[in-house]
Specification:
This protein has about 80 residues and is mainly α. It is built from 1 helix and no strands.
């Protein structure tokens, strides 16, 4: 993101006294808005794993680990 200075340039802003002050009866220059300003919007996608897929994956890993251990010990085949 590129930075945009929101303040007006005092050298080219009419109605300002030297040093940036505003003489009596003048309206101060308006602020410009920054494109980055405003509240952060959270991403609506869910974070993390759902319980069912995580449980199935862990169960599959556990069954495979028990099967490998049983095969390594000669209990199967």
């Amino acid at each position: 993101m590129s930075y945009v200075n929101p303040d007006p340039d005092p050298r080219s802003t009419p109605g300002l006294e030297p040093g940036g002050g505003v003489p009596p009866g003048e309206t101060p220059p308006a602020e410009s808005s920054m494109p980055e300003a405003g509240p952060r919007q959270r991403d609506s996608t869910s974070r993390g794993w759902a319980k069912a897929p995580l449980t199935l994956i862990l169960l599959l890993v556990l069954v495979m680990a028990v099967g490998f251990l049983a095969y390594a010990l000669g209990l199967i085949f």
